[in-house]
Each structure stands twice: as structure tokens, then as C-alpha cells.
């Protein structure tokens, strides 16, 4: 029982450290402190380096969602509404959540493992000896890179998801692409695209801050580095779903109970 309480307290403390790290990132960002070469390096990791799983998952998710939706709507003769249902659910919610979750697993865990290894091998202490702030050199470039690349990744995910939906609708239910795309265009407003970009920016911040925070607070050895990477992913997933709920309520209006 005491061990469980200690683990819970440690988890709460490290989540609090992530909040404090976010404040430090904002402060250093306002001061204009950043290593721009490191930003480009991490943009490659968060963008082209992660594009394959995002596109594959989005394409198959779009096909699966279309098949399940069309199967029900076709029975009621609502063929023209298949694309609209796809736009409302997949484009607004599912594509951003899937993209952020994939980057949390691939990029966020990598950040936590890299910084955790640097912490346990005292490389971060060496940065202090060289009068280099780890926030400026290690954290800020990763946060900026994720914030910049996540919205683009979500747009790509939506595009590939729509392509998969068009293919599934035509292949399995003979819904012509023109009908499907017109329904998507009718239901998907320009403001929805802005919301997707906003979610990308916020989710990118969560992925980078959580990954860096759990890496910087790692203590022990190789085992603890792996645990930090795993816990960083889980914490990021939870925070993404919580933030998505908050954004949905704020941007879509409070639901009537």
C-alpha cells in the first residue's frame, strides 16, 4: 500500500513538473531564445519521419468508418448523407485524435527516451556546466517543431481519410465520388478546418511538453528511461482526450442536458 501511494505521489509530482515546464517554455519563447537549427532537425522527426504511419492509419480508418456508416444509412435510403456523417465525425474528431495519438507514440516517446538517457548519463548537467540552458537547447526546439508540424500532419490525415472514404463508398456501396465529396463539402465548413489546425497546435504542444517533461525528470538507469517513455505516451493520450473534450465543448457550444 505505501508503495502504491508513493507511485501515485510521484506521478502527480511529475505531472505538475510538466505544467511548470510549459510555463518555462512560454517564458523562454517570449524571450526569443531558440536554436533554430535544432528546430529544423526535430521538424523532420515530427513531420516526414512520422508521415507513413499517419497516412496508413488515416486511410484505413477512413475506409472502416465509411463502411460502418454507409451500411446503416443505405438501409434508410440516406445515401447522400454518408459523406456528411463522415465529415462530422472523422474529419472533425477522429482524424485529429488518431494523428495526435500516433505522434505521441512515435515522437513523444522518442523525446522522453532521449532526454531521459541524457539525464541518467549526466549530459544535462554538462549543459549547465557549459552555461547552456536545457530549456533553450533541448525542450524549446522540440515544442516548436511539434506545434508547427502537427497541424500539417492532421491536414494530410484528413485528406487521406477522405480518399479512403471515397474508395470504400464506391467499392462497397456504389456511391459515386461526386455524391460523397459534395456531401463532405456541404457539412465540412471552413471553420472546421481552422478548428483542426487549432487542435493540431495544442495537441503538438501536449505531445512535446509531456515527452520532454517525463524525460527530464527521469532518475535511475535504463529501466527508468523505458518507464518514462511509456508513461509519457499514456499521459499524453489522456491529456489529448481531456483537451479534445474541452475544445469540443467550448468551440461547439455547451450541449443541452
From TrEMBL:
The keyword rRNA processing does not apply. InterPro entries: ABC_MlaE_roteobac (IPR003453), Permease_MalE (IPR030802). It is a multi-pass membrane protein. The keyword Transport applies. The chain crosses the membrane at residues 12-30, 42-67, 73-91, 152-173, 193-217, 229-251. Its main location: membrane. Belongs to the MlaE permease family. This is Transporter.
Amino acid at each position: 500500500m505505501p508503495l502504491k501511494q508513493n507511485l501515485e505521489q510521484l506521478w502527480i509530482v511529475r505531472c505538475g513538473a510538466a505544467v511548470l515546464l510549459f510555463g518555462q517554455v512560454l517564458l523562454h519563447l517570449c524571450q526569443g531564445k531558440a536554436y533554430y537549427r535544432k528546430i529544423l532537425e526535430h521538424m523532420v522527426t515530427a513531420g516526414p519521419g512520422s508521415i507513413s504511419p499517419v497516412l496508413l492509419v488515416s486511410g484505413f480508418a477512413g475506409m472502416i468508418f465509411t463502411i460502418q456508416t454507409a451500411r446503416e444509412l443505405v438501409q434508410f435510403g440516406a445515401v447522400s448523407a454518408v459523406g456528411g456523417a463522415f465529415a462530422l465525425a472523422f474529419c472533425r474528431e477522429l482524424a485529429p485524435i488518431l494523428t495526435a495519438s500516433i505522434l505521441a507514440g512515435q515522437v513523444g516517446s522518442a523525446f522522453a527516451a532521449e532526454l531521459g538517457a541524457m539525464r541518467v548519463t549526466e549530459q544535462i548537467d554538462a549543459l549547465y556546466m557549459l552555461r547552456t540552458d536545457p530549456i533553450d537547447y533541448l525542450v524549446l526546439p522540440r515544442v516548436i517543431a511539434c506545434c508547427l508540424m502537427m497541424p500539417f500532419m492532421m491536414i494530410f490525415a484528413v485528406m487521406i481519410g477522405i480518399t479512403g472514404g471515397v474508395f470504400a463508398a464506391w467499392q462497397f456501396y456504389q456511391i459515386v465520388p461526386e455524391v460523397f465529396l459534395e456531401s463532405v463539402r456541404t457539412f465540412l465548413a471552413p471553420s472546421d478546418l481552422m478548428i483542426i489546425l487549432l487542435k493540431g497546435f495544442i495537441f503538438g504542444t501536449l505531445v512535446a511538453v509531456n515527452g520532454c517533461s517525463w524525460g527530464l525528470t527521469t532518475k535511475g538507469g535504463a529501466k527508468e528511461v523505458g518507464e518514462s517513455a511509456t508513461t509519457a505516451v499514456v499521459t499524453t493520450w489522456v491529456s489529448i482526450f481531456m483537451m479534445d473534450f474541452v475544445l469540443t465543448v467550448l468551440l461547439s457550444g455547451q450541449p443541452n442536458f
